[in-house]
Specification:
This protein has 3 helices and 4 strands, in the order ββαααββ. It is α+β, with helices and mostly antiparallel strands. The protein has one domain (about 1-75). A hairpin with a 5-residue loop joins strand 3 and strand 4 (about 90). The longest helix has 30 residues, at about 45-75. The termini are far apart.
Length: about 100
């Protein structure tokens, strides 16, 4: 990775060109030079593929949370437990025998 270090108030920040960016620039150059006959979607894939995979992961996580919440809300509620005078839990559905 090519890194540029800034001096001054933002000393810790680093900007650079990563491997995917270099690969994308290479693919664009090969396409414009007529060396490869790939569709533009494939040529530009190094620029958009990683963010698209990240977005897909976030959407899958949100969908999973939604389906989990939906599954919990569709379950039939358990009958509440009541206690007798001695503090023992009795099952209300069993008629208080427990």
């Amino acid at each position: 990775m090519i890194k540029v270090r800034l001096e001054g108030p933002r000393r810790g920040w680093q900007f650079g060109i990563g491997t995917l960016e270099l690969l994308g620039l290479l693919f664009v150059g090969l396409k414009l030079g007529g060396v490869v006959d790939w569709p533009w979607l494939a040529v530009t894939a190094p620029f958009w593929a990683l963010p698209a995979l990240g977005l897909a992961g976030v959407l899958i996580a949100i969908l999973g949370l939604f389906l989990t919440k939906l599954g919990h809300s569709m379950r039939s509620p358990q009958p509440p437990l009541v206690g007798d005078a001695e503090g023992k839990a009795l099952d209300k559905a069993a008629g208080g025998q427990g």
